[in-house]
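WARN no homologs supplied; continuing
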Amino acid sequence: MNEDPCMLCHVEEADAFFQRRRVWQDEHWRLSIVLQGAVAGFAHLEPLRHIPFITDLDGPEAASLGPALSRATAGIQTATTADKVYVYVFGDRVPHLHFNLAPHHPGGPLIGGPGMLRPDAELTAPAEHHAMAAAIEKALSTPEVR
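OK structure emitted
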């Protein structure tokens, strides 16, 4: 691993560690779909530049966050047909700003409040994770997605 302690600044290492696939990027932000776990379409939206926490957000990343977040969540919602996309930020494990984006379907594995995943949530098959990443990538490549 690189000497720099920030995993997300070494995106290939982060992609391998989190088993994720990058599906969209602009000049300030990138979106990666996690290809494991109980939620197909679960994603990380993170700035390309190292910004430790949301309280450190400044410059062009601050100015472009709204459009990037809107585009990413719209693409996820379109591709997954989710009722909504939960957006949450934790910064304790990886000190590089990243938004966790989680599509929610009624009766699905996500529940509000503590725990976020149902205790009996089953893992989604890898093929479905890969298919969802491809669908989100396609959705983000069309002009009608914000």
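Helices lie at 11-18, 59-80, 126-140.
OK
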